[in-house]
């Protein structure tokens, strides 16, 4: 039985990467009937690329749950991959979509949340804590006999994306440093976006008697990278991959905000999310890895930090003629 999948926020890197993998990998393609991409930005380059690969693109027009439910019905989707968009109204947009899936009786729902959301404090890390509220919205459908939505749910909590480190490529290329506001002692385990996409693709195309494969259905899947690293250890991994010395610089939260605002094109809410995740690291709440689910679902090993830096070597290597900043700033 082929799977008709609707993926939200395909104008973002997560939604795009999952959709692209499903549309280009032969193992996944043979299990597909169709891919529908829901997007707030139908004219973005990522969306155009997915359209050229065969995805059916539908503009996401927020406003009424009933209208969105009809959009889902018209798409023929039997599966929803719900990815909260990078938007200041992320919670409202995602809540509306979850309710629309419930009204449209979409049986299979995979929600992509964030690792660490359960450890976030509502007053200190509100953007992270929002994911708990959205997970609850998804899972509450399980006990509603009036809809089949929730009968086959999966929640994936993805850890800190290693690709977020690309924001600091300018400092890496010109000064040979990796500046992060995570302190000197505590650790975290960045995960490659491609690894998250692999797990999501396996879940979305898995088949079972009740919808998703019984190996995945009902699972709360926490994903991190395979290596716990301090800032210094992350810089060591980068040095190994790049063949040149990379140093970690512990910066303040204020400096991190300045760097993110000047060097990232992400939505303001997403920048706040990153700052909050860094604060979790400083509080010692990310000193764990969670790779068992990745191994069980994909049969592979997640990407190591040095492999990540090797993939993106061009973005991190010192440019010719540049020397690292001396301690006195001269």
Task: Kindly describe this structure.
The protein folds into two domains: 189 residues, Rossmann fold (3-Layer(aba) Sandwich); 111 residues, UDP-galactose 4-epimerase, domain 1, CATH 3.90.25. The chain is globular. The strands form two sheets. The protein has a seven-stranded parallel beta sheet, sandwiched between helices. The longest helix has 15 residues. It has 330 residues and is of the alpha/beta class.
The averaged pLDDT comes out at 91
Q: Which blocks of ≥5 consecutive residues have pLDDT under 50?
A: 321-330
Termini gap: 65 Å
Roughly how much helix do the residues carry, as a percent range?
A: 40-55%
The number of helices is 14
Based on helices, strands and strand pairing, what is the structural class?
alpha/beta
Which sheet architecture does the biggest sheet show?
Answer: 7 strands, parallel
Alpha carbon gyration radius? 20 Å
Morphology:
globular
Q: Largest beta sheet: what is the strand line-up?
A: 3-2-1-4-5-6-8
- How many discrete structural domains? 2
Number of DSSP strands? 9
Helix and strand string, N-terminal first?
Answer: EHHEHEHEHEHEHEHEHEHHHHH
Family: Belongs to the NmrA-type oxidoreductase family.
Protein name: NmrA-like domain-containing protein
GO cellular component, one term: nucleus
Keywords: NADP
């Amino acid at each position: 039985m082929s799977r008709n999948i609707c993926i939200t926020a395909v104008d973002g890197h997560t939604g795009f990467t999952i959709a692209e993998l499903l549309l280009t990998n032969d193992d996944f393609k043979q299990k597909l009937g169709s891919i529908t991409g829901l997007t707030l930005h139908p004219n973005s380059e990522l969306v155009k690329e997915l359209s050229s690969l065969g995805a059916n693109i539908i503009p996401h027009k927020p406003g009424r749950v009933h209208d969105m439910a009809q959009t889902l019905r018209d798409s023929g989707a039997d599966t929803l991959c719900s990815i909260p968009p990078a938007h200041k109204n992320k919670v409202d947009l995602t809540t509306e979509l979850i309710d629309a899936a419930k009204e449209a009786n979409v049986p299979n729902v995979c929600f992509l949340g964030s690792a660490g959301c359960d450890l976030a404090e509502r007053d200190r890390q509100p953007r992270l804590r929002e994911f708990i509220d959205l997970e609850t919205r998804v899972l509450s459908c399980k006990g509603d006999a009036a809809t089949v939505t929730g009968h086959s749910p999966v929640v994936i909590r993805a850890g800190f994306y290693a690709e977020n480190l690309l924001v600091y490529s300018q400092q890496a290329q010109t000064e040979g440093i990796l500046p992060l506001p995570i302190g000197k002692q505590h650790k975290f385990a960045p995960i490659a976006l491609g690894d998250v996409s692999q797990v999501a693709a396996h879940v979305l195309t898995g088949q079972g008697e009740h919808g998703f494969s019984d190996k995945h259905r009902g699972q709360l899947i926490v994903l991190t990278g395979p290596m716990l690293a301090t800032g210094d250890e992350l810089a060591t991994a980068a040095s190994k991959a790049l063949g040149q010395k990379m140093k970690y610089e512990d910066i303040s939260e204020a400096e991190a905000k300045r760097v993110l605002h000047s060097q990232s094109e992400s939505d303001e809410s997403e920048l706040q999310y990153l700052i909050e995740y860094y604060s979790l690291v400083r509080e010692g709440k990310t000193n764990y890895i969670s790779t068992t689910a990745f191994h069980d679902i994909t049969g592979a090993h997640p990407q190591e930090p040095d492999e990540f830096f090797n993939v993106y070597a061009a973005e991190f290597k010192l440019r010719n003629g540049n020397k690292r900043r001396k301690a006195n700033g001269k």
